[in-house]
Amino acid sequence: MSYLAKKAVLADLTVSIWNGTKLDRKVSREVCADKHADISAGRLYKDLVSRNSLAAIKQIAGAARTYHTDATMPWSKDGQRLLPATSFEAYEKKLLTFKYAFEKAVTDFLVSYDHYVDESRVRLGDLFRSIDYPTRHALGNKFSFSFGWDALPDSSDFRVDLADGEAERIRLQIERRQNELSAAAQREPLERMYGYVQNMHRQLSSLSGDIGNGARKTRICASLVGNISELADLLPAFNLSGDPEIAKLATDLKSSLCAESVKDLRDHDALRDSVATEAARMQTKIESMLA
């Protein structure tokens, strides 16, 4: 078994949601004709239910997708992402929490579905058509939340009935491809971190000497520090190759950029300038690692 197959699995997340919209072809034609426009000039999509009625479901789905992306590394074009084995338990627990919340929000929506349809009779006026609305049972099948994982393919376990020379050549191609994907996967968190650190440096530097301008200082939001801190916590797990430089980077980021509170960064100019300088230093360091 390859070292990578021992250290990570392939994770995937699939979330499906009924979008609650419908193209009204008849009204689209009428509008284009009324405006002397070609039929391809515009289309009218109706919100079959109020957007607020689906807001909770969409918020949970969005949060789950964001977590999945943040907690994993890119791997294949079909959506599977690399999940470090050390993060498996926390990942599964978090996704189960999202799944239960999603299913509850869907249940709540379906319970109130008839009420939302009645509201739309008034809201849509002459645009309302009962045929546009699926039954509650059919609608329930349009929502789904699933996640899972697969073992990484292992080139050492390549078994195909080919001549020895051909089999070895293909095995080496698989191994080389996996090494390329692994390198790209481990590079992505560094590129993400570079963007966070660069943003911190830009924002803090733009406020240098901006004494008394509280309105501008409010731009220092919690995510400025939080994004760096959260990703720094994940870097050791993402460090599948055991690179000591990445391990040290994670420690340095926490101590140099995440030790101060957002409130202190807003209130103390000298501290803010000092952290901006550190951000510039860390930005240069990450640049050299990505070179």
Helix and strand arrangement:
Blueprint: H1 3-7, E1 8-16, E2 21-23, H2 25-34, E3 45-47, H3 55-71, E4 73-74, E5 81-84, H4 88-111, H5 113-124, H6 136-140, E6 144-150, H7 164-206, H8 214-217, H9 222-238, H10 244-257, H11 262-267, H12 269-290
Antiparallel strand pairs: 1-5, 1-6, 2-3, 4-5
Helix pairs in contact: 3-4, 7-9, 7-12, 9-10, 10-12
Written account of the structure:
With 291 residues, the protein is of the alpha+beta class. The chain folds into two domains: 3-152, no CATH class; 186-290. It has helices at residues 3-7, 25-34, 55-71, 88-111, 113-124, 136-140, 164-206, 214-217, 222-238, 244-257, 262-267, 269-290, and strands at residues 8-16, 21-23, 45-47, 73-74, 81-84, 144-150. A four-stranded antiparallel beta sheet has the order 4-5-1-6, with helices on both faces. The protein has a two-stranded antiparallel sheet with strand order 2-3. The longest helix is centred in the middle third of the chain and has 43 residues, at 164-206. The protein is globular.
